[in-house]
Amino acid sequence: xxxxxxxxxxxxxxxxxxxxxxxxxxxxxxxxxxxxxxxxxxxxxxxxxxxxxxxxxxxxxxxxxxxxxxxxxxxxxxxxxxxxxxxxxxxxxxxxxxxxxxxxxxxxxxxxxxxxxxxxxxxxxxxxxxxxxxxxxxxx
Length: 140
Description:
Blueprint: E1 8-15, H1 18-29, H2 37-58, E2 66-73, E3 77-84, H3 91-97, H4 108-115, E4 118-121, E5 127-133
Antiparallel strand pairs: 1-2, 2-3, 3-5, 4-5
């Protein structure tokens, strides 16, 4: 679905399942995100991590709960907003602790921190906003 304007976007309400996330990621890949190849990888990684965390941690994989996702992108910027029906979490505490390399989970915040330009949670911890500025024209 190529965009006629400089900015494009997707907005969906999804059931809290990994299958729904995969279908949305396929749609995102086909959406003609104008970023360079390395930035497309980062964009997909950030979106996948945000949505997977919403399913697994936010909604506890309860398909009766929903995740609302809005993605806007241009050649220079990606903006992701994910809201889940979960109870939220203490993101301040989680950011201070960091993740151990031996843990099977818990590295999501580190991934967001490494690949995003800016990450913000609402006070409750069930809405995540990610900003990624693309380095258009610069070597990766």
